[in-house]
From TrEMBL:
It comes from Urochloa decumbens. This is Fatty acyl-CoA reductase. Its EC number is 1.2.1.84. It catalyses: a long-chain fatty acyl-CoA + 2 NADPH + 2 H(+) = a long-chain primary fatty alcohol + 2 NADP(+) + CoA. Gene3D superfamilies: NAD(P)-binding Rossmann-like Domain (3.40.50.720). It comes from the Eukaryota. InterPro entries: FAR, FAR_C, FAR_NAD-bd, NAD(P)-bd_dom_sf. Keywords: Lipid biosynthesis, Lipid metabolism, NADP, Oxidoreductase.
Length: 509
């Protein structure tokens, strides 16, 4: 049961003198979380950041370059002035480690000190590639969770474990989707209720397939593709659309199995939907990497996108990155405050509490919002072409069904492309450049649709009753400073003034 913030403590107060371990700190959400904790609670004891690096010095350089050195930390840097670097060195501990190893590769005295100091673990590390190698996705999204749980059991003062998942672990379900954890062995194949998912068996299968491919000289060059195809095939066998959400679902099952078997800390799963740029603080519009919908924006900005598979009337469930982090901090503080002291754990442990950091129920934004604000933005701020001339904003054709889209692509691109290739042969290669250009456009659109089409046609609505209870239980001041209420967002205003300019500035540089 989640205690109210008035009964427990205010969010910044909770993080005072706490030791926090954050995996995935070099990722988009990880950076926002590290910055927010340091900014709102400078009296945090220590923040441990494991990153892939060969040694401590390399880890420090990577954290400095990929985390602390980013524009996101400008406000914090300005606040501390000349003392900024010494403040960071006192509070932030970079670790040369990797979640695919036991104890993340940390050993000896450093491991002993860290486990004694940690009160909060936030597991945000993941590979988000929809079409990742199966062995790689399992190493990070499943074994990484297992290693985190093993480390958690060595922390005598640990109060809460917060695992970042994704709302789309539910696959392509429709209707109202509740905030509930997976049952062990659960699949999404409603047509085969007897089918069971054995996580350990999947790990063995991936290892054996990788071993056989590596041992066969003829197959070594195809190993990467074969392992990618294996992940996709296994995902679809059990009802998931891609390797990413499939392995994230297995990660959730692993978390529940490893930490819910007996005494232990409170366990929380936060499932964000499509994460977008920072809405409010510390840097509105700041974003890193290509989010799901941003691939569409970038394709449109470059005029590579003339059509797409999407129903503009359907909801695109989006949530700004700062709101996700605010919800994470509120959930961690609330559950830790409501949890018994480490030496008086409840037995048996409760299943993980799931929070949907989503917007589709309380403030749904249709895909039409993205399209109309994109048109407005690019008409007001046209892209400049190679010759310095403004690039004219063209309309995009949207198709609400796979059949309509496929028919259009065959007539508009596939048939002309085949004809052009034939003419190119007859003309001794004179049309090669035109052929290649049309081929690239066709491949670009088909790749986007293959990856993001399931999201564009997603018909589910994410219930957020747990999130709303969490918000209502917060102290009034925290509801403002740690806002994660999607009803406070004007989507047209946000996309036109904040998100699209942010994508153009920070992603499409």
């Amino acid at each position: 049961m989640v205690g109210t913030m008035e009964e427990a403590t205010r969010i910044p107060g909770y993080f005072k003198n706490k030791g926090i371990l954050i995996t995935g700190s070099t990722g988009f959400l990880g950076k926002i979380l590290v910055e927010k904790i340091l900014r709102v609670q400078p009296d945090v004891k220590r923040i441990y950041l494991p990153v892939r690096a060969p040694d401590t010095e390399s880890a420090k350089k990577r954290v400095q370059t990929e985390v602390i050195g980013k524009e996101l930390f400008g406000l914090l840097r300005e606040t501390h002035g000349k003392g900024f670097q010494s403040f960071i060195e006192e509070k932030v501990v970079p670790l040369a480690g990797d979640i695919i190893h036991e104890n993340f590769g940390v050993e000896g005295a450093q491991l002993s000190q860290m486990t004694q100091e940690i009160n909060v673990i936030v597991n945000g590390a993941a590979t988000t590639n929809f079409y990742e190698r199966y062995d790689v996705a399992l190493d990070v999204n499943v074994m990484g969770v297992k290693h985190m749980c093993q480390l958690a059991r060595q922390c005598p003062n640990l109060e809460v474990v917060l695992h970042v998942s994704t709302a789309y672990v539910v696959g392509e379900r429709q209707g109202l989707i509740m905030e509930r954890p997976f049952k062990q062995g659960e699949t999404l194949r409603e047509d085969d209720p007897q089918l069971r998912l054995d996580v350990d068996a999947e790990l063995r299968l991936a290892r054996e397939c990788q071993r056989l491919l590596a041992a066969d000289d003829a197959e070594q060059k195809n190993e990467r593709k074969a392992m990618k195809e294996l992940g996709l095939a296994r995902a679809r066998e059990f009802g998931w659309p891609n390797t990413y959400v499939f392995t994230k679902a297995m990660g959730e099952m692993t978390l529940a199995r490893e930490l819910a078997a007996g005494d232990g800390p409170a366990v929380v799963i936060v499932r964000p939907s499509i994460i977008t740029s920072i809405q409010r603080d510390p840097l509105p519009g700041w974003i890193e990497g290509t989010r799901t919908i941003d691939a569409i924006l970038i394709g449109y900005a470059k005029q590579n996108l003339s059509c797409f598979l999407a129903d503009l009337d359907l909801t695109m469930d989006v949530i700004p990155g700062d709101m996700v982090v605010n919800a994470m901090m509120a959930a961690a503080a609330s559950h830790a405050a409501a949890s018994p002291p480490p030496d008086h754990r409840r037995l048996p442990q409760q299943p993980p509490t799931v929070y949907h950091a989503t917007s589709s129920l309380r403030n749904p934004a249709p895909y039409a919002v993205l399209y109309r604000t994109g048109i407005r933005y690019f008409e007001a701020h046209p892209r400049v072409g190679p010759g310095g001339r403004p690039v004219r904003t063209r309309r995009v054709h949207f198709f609400a069904t796979v059949a309509a889209f496929t028919a259009y692509m065959v007539v508009r691109y596939r048939l002309p492309l085949e004809l052009l290739r034939l003419l190119n042969l007859l003309c001794c290669g004179l049309l090669s450049r035109l052929c290649a250009e049309l081929g690239r456009k066709y491949a670009f659109v088909m790749r986007l649709v293959d990856l993001y089409g399931p999201f564009a046609l997603f018909r589910g609505v994410f219930d957020d009753a747990n999130v709303e209870r969490l918000r209502l239980g917060m102290a009034e001041g925290d509801r403002v400073e740690f806002n994660f209420d999607p009803k406070t967002v004007d989507w047209d205003d946000y996309f036109y003034k904040v998100h699209i300019p942010g994508v153009m500035k920070y992603v499409l540089k």
